[in-house]
Structures are given as C-alpha cells and as structure tokens.
Amino acid sequence: MTAAVDTGQTTTIHGDRVSLLRVLGPAHVWALGVGIVLVGEFTGWNFSADKGGALAALIVCWIVGLLYTSVAMIDSEVTSTVAAAGGQYAQAKHIVGPLMAFNVALFLVFAYTMLEVSDAILLGDTIVAKAGVEGLTHNSFIAATIVVLAWLNYRGVLMTLNVNFVITAIAYVSIVILFFSVSPWTQGAVLKLNELVTPGNALPYGWIGVIAAFQFGIWYYLGIEGTTQAAEEVRSPARSLPYGTMAGMITLLIAAAMTWYVCASLMPWEYLGITYYPLWDAGKLTGSPLLENLLFIATLLAALASANGCINDAARAWFSLGRDRYLPSWFSAVHPKYRTPYRSILFLLPIALAFAFIADLNQAITFSILSGVLQYTFMSINIMMFRRKWPLGTIRRGYTHPFHPLPAIVLFCLCMVTFFAIFLGFGSQLIAMTVFYFLISLWFHFYRYKFVRRGDQFSMPWPKPQGY
Amino acid sequence: MARYIPPEQSKAGQVFDIAVVVVAIFVALWLPLKLGFAGAAKSIDPLDAKTWDALGQNATMASIWEKLGYTPETAHDIIQNRFHYIIDWPTLIIMAVVLIAYFVFLFRASDREYREVINEKFDDK
Predict the structure, then answer these.
(1) What are the backbone dihedrals phi and psi of residue B71, each rounded to the nearest 5 degrees, phi first?
(2) I need a surface site. Which of A117, A398, A439, A451 has the fewest CB within 10 A?
(3) Residues sharing a CB contact under 8 Å with residue A80, sequence separation 6 or more, in sequence order
(4) DSSP label at A401?
(5) Nearest to A53 by CA among A259, A207, A242
(6) Of A235, A232, A225, A252, nearest to A74 (Cα)?
(7) Cα A254 to chain center, whole Å?
(8) What is the spatial distance between Cα A270 and Cα B61, in angstroms, rounded to a whole number?
(9) In Å, what is the CA distance from A241 to each residue of A112, A232, A459?
(10) Angle between the B11-34 and A406-446 helix axes, to the nearest 10 degrees?
C-alpha cells in the first residue's frame, strides 16, 4: 500500500511531492460542464412534461435556465478567485467554514454519483431497447459502463476529458442535425406542435403542475457547475473557468430550447413524459432511419460523456475531503504515475454500481437533483457572504458578476420553489436525505473535526475577512 | 492563539470512519427505496370506453401513438396515469422545519469552526 501524506495542494508519496497536473484549457472546461449536462436533453427533462404537461416543460426550461445562469454567474466569480480542486467545496472552506465545506462536498459526491448511476441506467436501457432481444437485461451494460469509465478516469484526466470533448461535440451536433432536418421553420410537414400542444392539454394540471415540473426541469442543466471541479488542473483558472462555464451555459440553453421544440412537436405529452429516450424517439418519428440511428448513438454518447465527467468530479470532491482530513487521509493519495485521485475513484465505484442495480431511472435522478438543489441553496448564501467578507477591491477577482445581489436572490427563490416541487412528488426522500446530512454533520462537528488542521483550511493569499 | 495539533488517526480508526460513511450513505439513499417512500403519487383514472377520442387524443395524436406501436387499449394506462397533487400540510411543515433547522445548524456550527480557522491563520497579524 502506498503511504500518502497530505500537505496542502500536494500529496507526498514515498518522499516525493505529487500534485494534480495543470493540463486543461477552456475547451476541456466546456467539455466537462456540457458533457455532464447534455445527457439531460436525451433523458430526464421530459419527466417535467409528465408532471405538468408540455407547456410546463417549456416554462421550466426557461425559468430553470435563469436559475442556472445565476449559478454560472456566481460560480464564475467565486471559482475564478478560489481556484482549487473541489470547486464549491474549496469555496465553502474559505468563505463559510469547514462543516459547510464537508456538506458541500457530500452534495457534490451524491449529485454526481447518482447522475452517473442515471447515465449508466439510460445507456443500458437504450441498448436493451435497440437490441429488442427477449430476456436481455441492462445489468451487464450498466456494470461495463461504470467500470470502464472508472478505469479511464484512473488512467488520467487529460485523456478522460479529451474523450469527453469529442463525444460531447458529436452528441450536441446530433441535436442540431435533428433540429434542422425537421424543417423547424414550417409546421405541418414533420412538426405538428399546434395539434399536439393545444389550449386544452398544454397545462393539464394548471399552475401547480408548472411548479411540480421544476423538479425535473433542473435536469436540463444539472451539473454545469461541475466545471469548477477541475480548477486545480486548469492552466489559467481565472480565464478558463468563467469562459468555459458561461459558454457551456449558452450551449445548453440553445440545446434545451431545440430539444423541447422538436420533441413537443413530434409526440403527445403523455408519451413524452414517460419515455426514457425522447430524442431517440423523435428521431424514430421523423421516419428517417439515418436520424433514428444518429440519435440512438448520440443518446449513448451523451450518457457516456456525462458518466465520465461525473466520475471525474465526484472523485475530486472526495479526494479533497481526504486531503483536508475531513475524511480519512487515505483518500488523499494521488497515483504516482497517472497523477489522479485513484483511491477516491475506486472507492466510489462500488457505490455507483450498487445504486445502479437498486434504483430506477427517475429515483436516481431525484437523488441527484436533491443534492444539487441543496448545493444551489448554499451557493446563493455563499456569494452574499463572499461579497460581505471581501468587498470588491479588497482581493483580486478573476471575474466579477454583474447585478449583485439579484442573481443570488433569484437563485435562492428558485431553490425554494424547487424544494416545494420535490415535496409534491418525493417529499419523504427529501426529508430522509436532509436528516442524513444533519446526522452526518453532527458526526463531523462533534467528532471528525478534531482531526482537521485549523489554520491549513485557509490557503488563499487574502486579507483577514471583514467581521472577524 | 496556539497552533492546534490534531491527533494522528490510527489505521483502524480510519477504516471505522470509512465504514460509518458508507453505512450512512446506504441508509440515507437505499432505505427510502426499500421502504417504498420513493416515487410520486400517481394513479390510473380508468375509462370504460377505450377509444382515442375518449382518451382525449385527436387524429394527429392517435396517428403518432399508432406509429409508436400503441392501441387505445395499451395506451390507456399511460394516458390515464395521472398525478393527484394534494398538499399534505403536516408533511410540508415537517419538511420546512427539517430544512430550516439543518441550514441554521450548518451555518452556526460552520461559523464557530471558521473563527478557529481565521484566528489560527491570522494569528498576530
């Protein structure tokens, strides 16, 4: 077993100081963010149509887009200033305190691990549906996906994100090709929006359905904040992180709008709300075998890219917890050859596998969404504290987001609406998860925190925060 | 302020802490599934007449259902499977109290820890 000792930004192995490699550029940041999220267009967002109807899915697409624009703006400012592995975890450590950082890292790990589980289930189910062989189950495909991607992450971040860039780009281009292939400028030939979304069925549950739809509306964009996880491996964090994140958000808003328009114009909302592969179905319904096969492959690629990025992000958050001794320092080991957080990758592997076999797709998605919304609630308060403790001009910021505090207030309000939306379908799970976070916080505060080096938790070259 | 020197954790202690975290993860995520808490309140509102018209589907919708391989009989359970949004106030209040208590504890306890961090980091500065 390799002896690992954590020392701030590096890990010492057999006397050699080993750190994560700074090899990534803005394109990798874009690929990490969009790669994780784009699968949301291929499955998941459409469950919002089930909860509120086709029009509700469009309304939440734009309103939740506003939520995520606020997330991207806030995140770009804080991350371009606090550039360290762990992203929001490092932010919480420097701005709020160790216990909050511990919770934020767990939010990240759960959100990404459950998203990885959802991706693997989608991939397995899509292959099984395409094969059409009686008795074939998705289990072997799920296991192969999770294990192979974990191996890829084990071998190195640059290779992992290069693969992500290529497969994300292909999946994105497939949505654009589908959009322009169905003559979006004319109705009646292929697209029949007016006949499928009518005044009578646009909002079948009324406005309560629109609020309920927020739960899965989150899935259009969940994970874009993952760009910050690579902060310590980016060559120029102050430039690459805001650029990659904002470009990713614009990319996703365009993809979400195109996806809704094509899918809502091709299938009734009742079917749209329950299918696991709305874009693949849209490809089938055009009657073009080429589009059908393209969207089938793109669904698989989007799931692979997302799961790949999720393993990358979850492992880095877990690694950061080990490095700061919030969890046993055993997790803080960096692979001597591949320079990856390999123990964290291997530890999370069986957890992902276990949940892939015991949860179904919308349950896994809900687990992921729950942790995501808890994290966004933290972010809205975190930016307020950041600006109060270090007002503009007191420290060098890579990027300063405009209209403060409006984005934070919008984000907080939309998080409250989303909590209510989750309550409308999965209230017991929300309570169970919050109780879990509460209990594990007590464990950390009253027991685990004694292993943490106090002064080392603040590593940025900033002045003392105001009010302390 | 004197620099805090944390105790070294034994290997057995590290293994025990890892086990605690793993158990907590599975209890929190797996138990709601096992106890059947997961999933939204949906139920089928059955119809006697299983026709596209009775199911509220116009000619375009019906043609798409058929293209997807459905008949009115097989599509019935999908179309009529509806949410019934009822606000259960006691559960909503419990959820709000748990969330608020959690965040209040989180910020207050974090602030106590943060003051120790800042005091040690900026000692004598």
Answers:
(1) -110, 170
(2) A439
(3) A237, A238, A241, A242, A397, A398, A399
(4) -
(5) A207
(6) A225
(7) 18
(8) 10
(9) 19, 11, 20
(10) 120
Helix or strand run (H / E) with residue A16: strand A16-18
Cβ of residue B93 closer than 8 Å to a chain A Cβ? no
Give the residue among A381, A371, A356 at the shortest CA–CA distance from A437.
A371
- Going by the DSSP 8-state scheme, the letter that residue A232 receives in this structure is G
Subunit contact B102:A437, Cβ cutoff 8 A: yes
Contact assignment for B78 to A453 by CB distance below 8 Å = no
Residue A328 and residue B32: Cβ atoms within 8 Å? no
What are the structural domains, with CATH classification, of chain A? 26-457 (1.20.1740.10)
Contacts (Cβ under 8 Å, ≥6 apart) of A210: A52, A56, A59, A60, A203
- Rounded to whole angstroms, the Cα distance separating A418 from A411 reads 10
Q: Is residue A6 very low, low, confident or very high in pLDDT (cuts 50, 70, 90)? A: very low
Between the two ends of chain B, the Cα-to-Cα distance in Å is 11
> What tens digit of pLDDT does each residue of A396-416 get?
888 889 999 999 999 999 999
**Residue A387: both structure tokens together:** 């600006």
Position A368 scores a pLDDT of 86
Q: What is the pTM of this model?
A: 0.88
Rounded to two decimals, the ipTM of the complex is 0.89
CB-based contact, A401 to chain B, within 8 Å: no
User: Rounded to an integer, what distance in angstroms lies between the CA atom of residue A53 and that of residue A36?
Assistant: 26
pLDDT digits (tens, 9 = 90+) for B64-108: 999 999 999 999 999 999 998 888 899 899 999 999 999 999 999
What band does B38 get if pLDDT is binned at 50, 70 and 90? low
CA–CA gap between residue A449 and residue A446 (Å, rounded): 7
How many residues are recorded in chain A? 468
DSSP states along A135-147: T--SHHHHHHHHH
Q: Across the interface, which of A50, A425, A457 has its CB nearest the CB of B117?
A: A457
A211 has a pLDDT exceeding 60: yes
